[in-house]
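Hi R.,

As promised on Friday, here is the backbone we talked about, encoded as structure tokens. Could you run it through your design pipeline when you get a chance and send me back a sequence?
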């Protein structure tokens, strides 16, 4: 058994011209394969008004995946809680907990896209405070409390969920900048590490997370989850060529969406491919190369859960499935 638990991060993003049912079929096949390989978690994220890609929303997609992922943990990675009504978010998480047999991780994040915040009428200032208040409401509702609270778009007077999980799901909080990492240390059960941060940057932030958590009197976290772009092929050269064809375009879209502004000031995604794929930002290469890169994540960052994102818009599903199988074999996971 490897020192890291493997999970599938399902981007579920497809070219808009692809019939939606065909995109869903690819996602379902990836989940079935991950389950056969022994992966323990399936996670998918949330975006709204996704320009240039089509995506099924997180909660209905995870509800559908529950039937294919029996025995696996479902994870939101992440719900953009600052944009959502906390009652609806809590109700959805409670439902997903039931559908997964109690195997649910509530991944949450602040979000970064101006277009999304504008569409939901989110305040221009004080977003972090709104996010924290909504998270508190969601957690209290999932714990079975009667909640009296008010904020942008909600006003509760002794509200209580009647459908509640047997135990509230653990909260993983996504964070890119140092202030957000410190927030995760104070408020979450784990920090969901930046999916495209450089290892050197993440190592410093990991120290910040643990120090802040100790200062806040929170219990220590022994392992951290991370999402990583994964491309495994028979040779390093094959993997580099395949990843460059698909990841370069994906990260150009990230820059258009504003993800670059959410990174620490010392980093940028505005780089050519050869510079972008450096300092452990992605896991790309032959099986042995990728196994060494995974070991570095474990050794330097204390990673316990690796959520593998191996499929990107326009990529043949067969290439993504090959990556999962080769990585699983390289880590002696099957």
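Update: got your reply. Pasting your designed sequence below so it's all in one thread:
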């Amino acid at each position: 058994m490897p020192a890291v638990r493997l999970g599938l991060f399902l981007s579920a993003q497809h070219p808009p011209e692809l019939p939606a049912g065909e995109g869903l079929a690819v996602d379902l096949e990836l989940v079935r394969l991950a389950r056969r390989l022994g992966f323990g978690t399936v996670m998918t994220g949330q975006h709204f008004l996704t320009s240039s890609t089509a995506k099924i929303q997180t909660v209905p997609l995870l509800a559908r995946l529950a039937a294919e992922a029996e025995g696996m943990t479902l994870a939101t990675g992440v719900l953009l809680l600052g944009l959502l009504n906390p009652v609806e978010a809590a109700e959805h998480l409670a439902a997903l907990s039931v559908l997964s047999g109690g195997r649910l991780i509530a991944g949450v994040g602040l979000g970064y896209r101006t277009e999304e915040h504008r569409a939901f009428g989110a305040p221009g200032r004080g977003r972090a405070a709104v996010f924290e208040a909504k998270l508190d409401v969601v957690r209290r509702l999932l714990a079975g409390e009667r909640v009296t609270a008010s904020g942008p778009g909600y006003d509760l007077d002794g509200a209580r969920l009647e459908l509640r999980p047997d135990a509230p799901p653990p909260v993983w909080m996504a964070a890119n900048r140092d202030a957000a990492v410190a927030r995760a240390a104070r408020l979450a059960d784990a920090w969901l590490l930046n999916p495209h941060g450089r290892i050197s940057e993440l190592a410093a932030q990991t120290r910040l997370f643990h120090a802040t958590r100790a200062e806040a009197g929170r219990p220590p976290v022994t392992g951290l989850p991370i999402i990583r772009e994964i491309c495994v092929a028979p040779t390093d050269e094959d993997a580099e060529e395949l990843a460059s064809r698909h990841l370069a375009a994906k990260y150009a879209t990230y820059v258009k969406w504003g993800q670059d502004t959410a990174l620490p000031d010392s980093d940028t995604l505005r780089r050519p491919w050869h510079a972008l794929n450096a300092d452990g930002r992605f896991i790309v290469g032959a099986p042995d190369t990728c196994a060494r890169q995974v070991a570095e994540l474990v050794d330097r960052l204390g990673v316990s859960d690796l959520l593998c994102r191996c499929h990107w818009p326009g990529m043949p599903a067969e290439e993504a499935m090959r990556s999962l199988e080769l990585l699983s074999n390289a880590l002696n996971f099957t």
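One thing I noticed while checking it: The longest helix spans residues 236-257.

Thanks again,
M.
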